[in-house]
Target: Pseudoazurin
Amino acid sequence: MKLALFASAIGIAAIGWSGAHAAEHEVRMLNKGPKGQAMQFDPAFLKIEPGDSVKFVATDKGHNSESILEMIPEGAETWKGKINEAITVTFDVEGIYGYKCQPHFPLGMVGIIQVGDNTDNLDSAETAKLPGRAKTRMAELIAQVGAGGAGSEEAQRD
Model:
């Protein structure tokens, strides 16, 4: 009996320990980015660890965050936030996640989250059909995958 209680206590402690390492990051949805560019997520590229969450904050009105279906890892959950509302997404599957602001997608309001070091779905992200400026902006962000993953969120802002 004592052994079973001890094993339960160890199991509970392990669950608490693993959750203690998850971080919450913040991405702001802006009409104008830090360098004056129109319709931006800030930061637009973010590298996080599996189990971390990202809170997308509608800093300026008229924005949302939602996954781009062709640009998420196999087995990962999609998300779709409401206009003018914050949404928090937890990322458990490693890989590359492309996301957009639906109203400003053709204007290039897109972003990438790299979860962990697995980039197996990078090819599908690179070949996804994107409208207007979103294609150019996404190519700039994809160039940061792998190379731009190190450093703080501040260093990842562009």
The two ends are 58 Å apart (CA to CA). Residues 6 and 43 are 45 Å apart (CA to CA). Helices lie at 2-20, 122-127, 132-142, 153-156. Residues 22-156 form a domain with the Immunoglobulin-like fold (CATH 2.60.40.420).
